[in-house]
Amino acid sequence: MRAKISYAVTAAVLVFYFALVGSRGVMLIGTGTPVAVAFGIAVLILPVIGVWFLWKNTQFVRRANALAAELDAEGGLPVDELKRTPSGRIDRDSADAVFALRKAEAEDAPGDWRTWFRLAVAYHDARDTPRARKAMQRAIALHDGKPVEAA
User: Which residues are within 8 A (CB) of 24 and not within 5 positions of it... i.e. 6 or more apart?
Assistant: First the structure.
């Protein structure tokens, strides 16, 4: 729940920032001078890109959470079997061992979104965020029945 609140607060701050920057871009365009208009248009591009990125990221998170809920209802969420350090951080060797297991499962059933979801969790636990995101995107695509290119 804390993560959802943090995400919502961050998104709200970003939207406020985008509105502020956008209004400055409109003000620059309103001056009518060629340099200010060009600069105002350039300034307006930033909030557009930011809103697009925020929208795509929010959709990704919502879809990943929907898969987690579905997998939880099936009783298929990965069990937290990771060893932890005294400070509570995940032990790297433990994460690597679980990752090897999850990778083998995904290789054995490449068309099953559930194995890719669990692989994404293992990537995340192994602190490999880019690959975790790609594995989750693949799980979402498989769940939605979209074609997926070979890994």
Answer: 40, 43
> Which of 146, 147, 151, 3 minimizes the C-alpha distance to 68?
3
Count CB atoms within 10 A of the CB of residue 108. 9
**What is this structure's pTM?**
0.78
CA dist 127 → 68, 93, 99, 130, 133 (Å): 19, 12, 11, 9, 11
CA dihedral 8, 11, 12, 15 (to 10 degrees): -160
**Total count of residues recorded for the chain:** 151
* 28's tokens: 């620059």
Alpha helices (H) in 75-128, listed in sequence order: 92-108, 113-125
Instruction: Fill in the amino acid letter for 19.
Output: A
The two structure tokens encoding residue 70: 């579905």
Asked whether the beta carbons of 117 and 147 are under 8 A apart, the reply is no
Tell me the pLDDT tens digit for each residue of 60-73: 999 999 999 999 99
Do 120 and 98 contact (CB within 8 A), yes or no?
no
pLDDT in tens, 95-133: 888 888 899 999 999 999 999 999 999 888 888 899 999
